[in-house]
UniProtKB/TrEMBL annotation:
Name of the protein: Sugar ABC transporter permease
Family: Belongs to the binding-protein-dependent transport system permease family.
Keyword Transmembrane helix attributed: yes
Gene3D superfamilies, A to Z: MetI-like
Membrane-crossing segments per the record: 33-60, 96-117, 129-149, 177-202, 223-248, 283-303
Region Disordered: start-end pairs: 1-21
Xref: CDD domains: TM_PBP2
Origin species: Paenibacillus cookii
PROSITE patterns: ABC_TM1
Biased composition (Polar residues): 1-10
Amino acid sequence: MQNQTASRTASAPALQPDNKRKTAMTSKTSDGIWGYVFIFPQLVGLLLFSLIPLISAFVLSMMKWDGMGEKQFVGLDNFINTFKDEDFRIAVVNTLYYTVLTVPTGIILAMLIAVGLNRVKGKLIYRLIYFMPNITMSVAVAVVFMWLFNADFGLINLYLKEWFGIDGPRWLTDTRFVMPSIAMLSVWMGLGGNMVLFLAGLQGISASYYEAAQIDGASKWQQFINITVPLLSPTTFFVTIMTIIGSFQVFDQSFVMTSGGPAKASYTIVFHIYDSAFVDFTFGKSTATAVILFIMILALTLFQMKISKRWVHYED
C-alpha cells in the first residue's frame, strides 16, 4: 500500500509538465487560428485586388487587344514595340527629370520643417496645417495651381512683378518651365506627409545624444549633421523609397494642368499608359508599358535596399 502511494506521488510531478505542454500547444494553435481569422479579410482583398490583377496584367501584356474583340497572343511584341516608341522614350526622360526635381527637394524641405516644428510649441496645429494638402484631392489642387501659374493673371506672376519687378514666365505653356511647375505643385502636396514621418522619427531620437553633444561643446549645426541626420536615416530611407515610387507614377497633375504638353514636355510614363489604352485602344501595349514601369520601380527599390546598408544607421 505504501509502495503504491509512493509510486503515485512520484509519477504525479512527471505528468504536470506534459499537461503544461499540451495546454501551451493548444493555446498556440488557438492563437494561430484566430490570427488567420483576423487576417483573412486582408488576404482576400490582397488576392482579389492585387495578386490576380497583377497576374492578369502580365498575361495581357503579351496579347494584342483593342478592348472589344478577341485577344491575340503576340509574345514579346508589345514590349519590343514599346521600347521602339518615341513617345515612350520621351515619357521616360520626362519622368526621370520630374523625379530629380521632386525627390531631393521634397525630402530636404520636409526634414528641415520637421526639425523646426520639433522645437516649437503647438506642434499638433502646425502638423495639421502642413498635412492638409496631403489629403486634398490632387485634381482640385491642380485646378487651383493652374490659376496660380496663369501667365496673364496668376498670383505668382503678379507678385513677381509687384515685389521684384520681374515678368514671370509662362509656367504651363513654356517647355522649359512646365515640368518645374508640376514639380513645385507635387512637392507642396507631399510635404506634409513626409514632414509627419520625419517628425515621428525625430521624436524617437533619445535626448541623451544631444545632451552629451552639448556637454562636448557641439553647435546646433554639428548636432544636426552628426546626430539628427544619421539617426533619421531609417526614416529618410523609407521616405526616399516612397517618394521615388510616387514620382514614377505621376499622372494627375500632368493630365489636368497641361494634358501632357506643351510639345509633350510633361508627358510621363503613366500618361503614356493612359494614352495607349484609352486613346489608341492598344490595351496590350499599354499593359506592357505598365509592366515595364513595375519592373523599373522594383529594380530601383531593390537597388536602394542594397545600398542602404552603407548609409542607414539603426539606433541600438
